[in-house]
Amino acid sequence: MKNLIILDHPIVQRDVTLLRDKRTPSNQFRAILRRVSALMAFAVTADLPLRSVSVTTPLAKTKGRVLARPVVLVPILRAGLGLVGGFVEVLPDSRVGHIGLYRDEHSLRPVDYYFKVPRNIREAMVFLLDPMLATGGSATAALTYLKNHGAKTLVCVTLVAAPEGVRRVHKEHPEVKIYTCALDKKLNARGYILPGLGDAGDRMFGTE
User: Fold this and answer.
1) Is 101 helix (H, G, I), strand (E, B) or coil?
2) 43: left (phi over 0), alpha (psi -120 to 50) or beta
3) pLDDT of residue 108
4) How does pLDDT run across 125-176, given as a tens digit for each residue?
5) pLDDT above 70 (res 207)
6) Of 3, 35, 4, 34, whose CA–CA distance to 182 is shortest?
7) How do strand 95-96 and strand 71-77 relate by DSSP bridges?
8) Is the peptide bond before 195 cis (omega within 30 degrees of 0)?
9) Angle, CA 136 vertex, CA 143 and CA 106 arms, to 5°
10) By the 8 A CB rule, do 136 and 164 touch?
11) Where is 96: in which H helix or E strand?
12) Which of 89, 101, 144, 178 could form an SS bridge with 110, CB 3.0 to 4.6 Å?
């Protein structure tokens, strides 16, 4: 699929397998999620633009390069919080917004309850973070909110995606790249990804 990038690094795939395993306890789930999100952050930022600067080492002046654009991380609450730690380790100067959405269990449509992002995100590279891209309802709604608040360059980052969710994001936001570690088979009748890894928020916070 166009604008879909699957991160197939061996360490990433190993960690996704550990996250899928229902025997993995919450404390290990959180630690693994943080580690894999740092690996993902390294991969999804490969195209960030740079600008030249001058620095002075202990021995001489030299040229160096720094990021040319600000970075904003926007996790979808609550499961998206699990990806923030790893990204911040790689991008310590990034600012963090939050979008609160939950999926109505009957209609499977997203319901919003919180939205707070940094000002002046027009020039920033904005990474939308959510471990699961299932129906695509929450992701498309979040992307729309961010665009309405000025975001111009958006990237969707998720651990596991369903084909239905990918198609919906590409239909409503065709220019947005989706980075994921796995494209799974399908959704079940309740809108959960199969085989998936269960409810990422419940597993992360021990609220199964």
Assistant:
1) strand
2) alpha
3) 65
4) 999 999 999 999 999 999 999 999 999 999 999 999 999 999 999 999 999 9
5) yes
6) 4
7) parallel
8) yes
9) 120
10) yes
11) strand 95-96
12) 101
Neighbouring CB atoms inside 10 A of 101's CB total: 22
Percentage of the chain beyond pLDDT 70 is 99
Domain architecture of the chain: domains with CATH: 4-205 (3.40.50.2020)
What amino acid occupies position 161? Answer: A
The burial of 11, by beta-carbon neighbours within 10 Å (0-12 exposed, 13-18 middle, 19 or more buried), is given as exposed
- Rg of the chain on CA atoms, in Å: 17
77, two tokens: 């609450």
Residue 202's CB: how many other CB atoms inside 10 A? 14
- Per-residue pLDDT, 2: 81
Give the other-Cβ count within 10 Å of 130's Cβ.
28
How far apart (Å, rounded) are the C-alpha atoms in residues 204 and 201? 5
Residue partners of 73: CB distance under 8 A and separation at least 6:
84, 87, 88, 91, 94, 95, 96, 97, 127, 129
Tally the residues of the chain: 208
User: Residue 193's beta-bridge partner residues?
Assistant: 187
- So what's the pLDDT on residue 187? 93
φ, ψ (nearest 5 deg) of residue 27: -65, -40
Q: What are phi and psi of 51, to 5 degrees?
A: -130, 155
| Mean of pLDDT values over 164-190 | 95
Give strand pairing partners of 99.
76, 115
Tell me whether strands 98-103 and 95-96 are parallel, antiparallel or unpaired: unpaired
